[in-house]
Structure formats: structure tokens, C-alpha cells
Amino acid sequence: MRKLVYYVAVSLDGYIAGPQGEFDFFPMCADMMAWIGEHYPESVPAHVREPLGLPLDTPNKQWDTVLMGRGTYEPALAQGVDPYPHLKQYVFSTTLAPADHPRVEVVNSDPVALVRELKRQEGMDIWLCGGGKLAGSLLGEIDRLIVKSYPVIAGGGVPAFAGNFQPTRFTVTERRQFDTGAQVSWFDRA
User: Fold this and answer.
1) In this structure, which long-range contacts are made by residues 91-95, counting pairs with CB atoms below 8 Å and at least 24 apart in sequence?
2) What is the per-residue pLDDT across 62-72, written as a single tens digit (0 to 9) for each?
3) How far from the centroid of its chain's Cα atoms is residue 159's Cα?
4) CB-neighbour burial class of residue 113 (10 A; exposed 0-12, middle 13-18, buried 19+)
């Protein structure tokens, strides 16, 4: 059965983006970018692959499907780019018209039902890319967290999880640190 994996960058105070969707405050370093390209190439948007030295045709290693909230999709939409053409893309939104976004599947129904259906299908795992509201609604379906924790305080913005109080235990399975002090931690549902 496929797993739902929330792979996300987080500030020390638990934010995945700033108040206006900013994400450029996360300090990147060469060793971390190389590691991402080697282990999670499908997480690198198509329009930034070549500048980072990652060929467009780099095969997916972990996921073949990506789930995004509208706020996560918005930066690509504003730039007029298709962020992940190498993945099956689902964008959860009640305001986007599916006909206006033919490269993604716009979903305005229950995300839990869709995730359960996707988990039953054949394929690689499913990447939950963001945002916080979508992650909060899918907390009961998340099998693994891969958290890129950066040594920066955002002070406000989009929380990693937004929604109802729902304590959910996960177990740390691995951790890695990079030159900037950023860490990647893997957590499996306890």
C-alpha cells in the first residue's frame, strides 16, 4: 500500500511559509541541495531544475504523486509555470476552475477520501507538499513525516499543521544535519 509522506521545510517556530506565502527565508546550502537532488529529485520544481544542475529527465525516486493546497500552488501559478510535470498533481481548492488549470487536477472535495483512494492504487508513495490546512485535514492519513528543519525563526505565517487539536505520535527513525545547521528528520507514525 502506498504511503502519504509529508515532506516539508519548517522554521524553528513551526512555520512552512511566511504570512504572504514566502519561503525564501529558509537558508539553503550546497550540501543540502545536492542531497535533495540525489534523494528527492522529484521535490525540485521543473523550472528550477536546470539552474540547480538537475536534468529535467531525472527519474522520480520516492513519489509519483503530489498533493498541494492552493497556497502551495500559488507561487507557480503566479509565475505561469507547471511546478511538477513529472508527478501527478492534485491541487485542493474551492476557488480554482479546473478548466483553467489543465496540468493539475483541481479537487474541491474531501481530501481524506481522495488520499484513501490513492493509497489503494499501484504506484510510488504520495507526497504531501503543503500547506498547513491541508496537512491538518490529512493528519490521520499521514504515514511518514520528513521534516527539513531550518535554524531560523519566522515569527508568523503558515503553520505546518492548522486545524483541530489532535495530538498524534510519531517515532523518529533517522536524522541528518547539513552545513547551515539545517536538519532533516524522518518520523513514522507510532
Assistant:
1) 92/67, 92/68, 92/134, 93/69, 95/70
2) 999 999 999 99
3) 13
4) exposed
Which of 187, 178, 188 is closest to 38 using CA atoms? 178
CA dist 176 → 31, 70, 172 (Å): 11, 30, 12
Class of domain 4-18+58-189: alpha beta
**153 phi-psi bin (left φ>0, alpha ψ -120 to 50, beta other):** beta
Please give the pLDDT value at position 31: 94
| Threshold 0.90, pTM exceeds | yes
> How far is CA 24 from its chain centroid?
15
Whether 138 and 128 have beta carbons less than 8 Å apart is answered as: yes
